Amino acid sequence: MRRFPANDIISLVSAAPRRDLGESTGPDLRLGSLLDEADAASLGELPLGYGTPEGHPALRSVIAEMHGVAAEDVVTTVGGMHALFLLALILCDGGAEAVTTAPLFPLARSALEVAGAQIRLLPLTFDRGYRPRLDQLRPLLCARTKLVSIASPQNPSGVRLSFEELGQILRLMRELSPEAHLLVDETYREAVYGADAVPPSAVSLDPSVISISSLSKCHGAPGLRVGWAVVRRPQLREQLVLGKFNTVISCSSLDEALALRLLERRQQIIAERRVQLAAGMGAVASWVAKHAQRVEWVPPDAGAICCVRLRRDAIDDTGVERFYAALGAQDTRVADGRWFGDDGRVFRLGFGRLTVAELEGALRSVGHALEQAARSGET
User: Fold this and answer.
1) Out of 56, 178, 219, 231, which could bridge 215 as a Cys pair, Cβ 3.0 to 4.6 Å?
2) Topology of domain 8-28+268-373, per CATH?
3) Are the C-beta atoms of 194 and 275 separated by less than 8 Å?
4) DSSP label at 68?
C-alpha cells in the first residue's frame, strides 16, 4: 500500500495558538467583501452542476491575463496542490527522475514521492541566502530527468529567483535533460511589499516552463479551493485536463464563481495586503536587529514569510529544544525548519496574518523564548 508521508506541518490547519507566527498566509478574506447585493442575487441563480474539466472560461481568461498567456493555456485545479500532484503523476511515471530543492514546502515533495518519482535534491542553504548553485544542480540532471520543481518566491524563505537564475537553470536543462519541464510554484509572485514591482510570470521564459499558483497566499482565500496551472505545451495540457477529469471531474462551480469575483477585484485586494506585508516585514526587521546577538535572518523578496536562525554562538544545541518548548509554554508558534528539510535552528516566521500590534506582541514572546533558549542547563 502506498503511504502518504506525515509531517508536523499538518498542525497549521489544526487549532491555532494565541500567537501564531507559523502561518504563511495573510488575513482570511471575508466572503462579504466579495459580494454586493447584485453579486449575491446572481449567485442565487448559479446552477450547482458540474463545471468543465478545463475550468470556467471567464476565470481562465482573467488568470491568463495575469500571466501574459492565452486562456487555452490555463487549467484550473482544486488548489495548487492538486496541480502539483497531477503533474507529478503525469511527468514522473515509471520512476522518472525529478529534481527539487531542500528546504521545500513539504507537500510539494510529497507529491513527487507519492507519484513514485526518483527524487534528487538540490540543497539551498541559509548561509547562501537560499540561492541555488549551478555546480550543484548540474550532476543532478540527466536524460531520465522529467521534472525540475522549484518555488519562486520560495516557501519557507520568501526568496525569489531572478530571471537570470531561472534562465541558467533552463540552459542546463536543455543541455542535460532535454525532455524535462521546469515547474515554478509562483504562489507568492504578486505578494510584494508596498509599491514594489510585481515581476512577470516565469512562463514567459520558455514553453517548457509550467507555472502553478492559487488563491491561498496572495489573496487570502485558501477556503476557496481554486488553483491553476499554466501549461503552454498542448499535449501536456491535455493530459492535465484528463487527469483532473479522472480525479475530481471539475472544480466546484461555486468556488470558481467566487474566484472570478475575487480576481476581478484583485488589484484593490492585493494592494491593501501589500501595505500590511511591508509593515509586517519592517516589524520583523526591527525585531531581528534588536535580537541580533541571538538570531540572524535572510530578508525575503516577497510573501508573508521569512527564515530566521538561532545563532550557534549564543544558543547551544540543547537550547534549540528549549526555544521551541518555551514558545509552546507561551501559546506561541513558529514553523520548525525541520518541517521543510532545514536545520532545527532555522524557523519560518510568518508576518502577514497579524496586525502590526499583534505581530509585535507575538515577537516579544519569541524574544522571551530566546532568553530561555540561551540559558545553560535545563529551565
Assistant:
1) 219
2) Aspartate Aminotransferase, domain 1 (3.90.1150)
3) yes
4) T
Helices (H), 157-307: 163-176, 234-247, 253-264, 266-290
| Residue 121: partners with Cβ closer than 8 Å, 6 or more residues away | 99, 100, 101, 102, 140, 341
> What are 19's strand-pairing partners?
332
Q: Using one digit for the tens of pLDDT, what is the confidence trace for 88-139? A: 999 998 889 999 999 999 999 999 999 999 999 999 999 999 999 999 999 9
Residue corresponding to grid cell 535534491: 121
- E-only strand ranges, the chain: 19-20, 74-77, 97-102, 118-123, 145-151, 181-185, 209-214, 227-230, 295-298, 305-310, 332-333, 335-336, 346-350
Each domain of the chain, given as residue ranges in start order, spans 8-28+268-373, 48-265
298/301 Cα distance (integer angstroms)? 9
pLDDT tens readout for residues 200-231: 999 999 999 999 999 999 899 999 999 999 99
Contact 155, 188 (CB under 8 A): yes
List the grid coordinates of 279. Answer: 509593515
| CB-based burial label for 158 (10 Å; 0-12, 13-18, 19+) | buried
Domain 48-265 fold is Aspartate Aminotransferase; domain 2 (3.40.640)
Q: Is the pTM of this model over 0.90?
A: yes
**pLDDT, tens digit (0-9, with 9 covering 90-100), for 307-357:** 999 999 999 999 999 999 999 999 999 999 999 999 999 999 999 999 999
